[in-house]
Amino acid sequence: MENIIWSTGHSLLLDHIVRAENCYLYDRDGRRYTDMESGVWCTGIGHCHPAVNRAIRDQSDKIFQSGFNYISPIVEKAALRVLEIAGFPGGKCVFLCSGSEAVEFGVRIGAVVSDKPARLTFADSYFGAYGQATHKQDPDWIRYNWLDCSCSGSGGCRATCKEFAAIPFGEIGLFLFEPGSSSGLVRFPSTGLIEKVCAKVIENGGLLMVNEVTTGAGRTGKWFGFEHYGIRPDIIAMGKGIGNGYPVSVTAVSEQVAGRAGQEQYAVRTIPPERSSGCFGGAVRY
Ligand SMILES: Cc1ncc(COP(=O)(O)O)c(C=O)c1O
Predict the structure, then answer these.
(1) Best probe residue, ligand 1, of 97, 187, 213 (max atoms within 8 Å of C-beta)
(2) Could you tell me if the CB of 239 is within 6 A of ligand 1?
């Protein structure tokens, strides 16, 4: 591994994996290993799933990339299906490449449609490798430590402590919740706490965003981790399992947020025809 920047932070244990199938990895000598991590928690329905591979192969023979001025109906079809499982009829989504981008995009939409600058998240949440993830120390982020408050029992905060009471809900434009924190340990905050936080945020005009990069695509037994809580998000970030290893991610927003974002000229961008026609990268009809 002389030419690879090994940036995972973990030791490299196997450097000759040449093939994978379902939950197994095979090295060049034919030795088989069980992949207990599903890649990086991506191949939820197994490595090299025949249906996924077939779809990728078929599509790669048709069109693989769309441009600024054209798109394929397959993208709309995928978007409709995503919005259906997300419970966002009339909503909108965007396809990106990594979970980090999906979270970043969602946070930015939240900032565009909300007039309140503060954002709330839990201290142990992980957003991704760049963007807002590296700016969680910014004053706009309120990072609540649900594991270490004065009312904390074995299940974490019960929302009866002075620390919870001190959260300035009136200033919060967005609550970014990761249903099953993945930084170091997988921990699930109690339903009572999440429902109380969400109720307070909504009551004060804030938005709910869920980061489903690791908990989405059926990984917790439901399509999304938030479905284990009685909450309805406005924005959902998806990644990893949504492509089963193929690098695709999605940010989906409810109809209401899409409408508000459109009014802010963010999600709906119109380029005048005189600028788009004939410009570099534009499509020419034959
Ligand atoms: C909860 C969570 N959100 C976002 C990300 C970022 O996803 P990606 O590595 O695809 O950029 C990760 C990655 O591990 C994650 O665990």
Answers:
(1) 213
(2) yes
Query: Helix %, strand %, coil % for the chain, to 5?
Result: 30, 20, 50
CB 211 near ligand 1, within 6 Å: yes
Question: What's at 51, amino acid-wise?
Answer: A
Separation in Å, CA 59 to CA 64, 83, 112, 122, 274? 7, 21, 34, 40, 32
pLDDT digits (tens, 9 = 90+) for 140-160: 899 999 999 999 887 889 999
Query: What does the H/E/C string look like for 131-158?
Result: HHHHHCCCCCEEEECCCCCCCCECCECC
178 CA → ligand 1 middle, Å? 11
Query: Does ligand 1 have an atom closer than 6 angstroms to the CB of 182?
Result: yes
pLDDT digits (tens, 9 = 90+) for 49-96: 999 999 999 999 999 899 999 999 999 999 999 999 999 999 999 999
Sign of the C-alpha dihedral computed for residues 63, 77, 213 and 33 taken in this order: negative
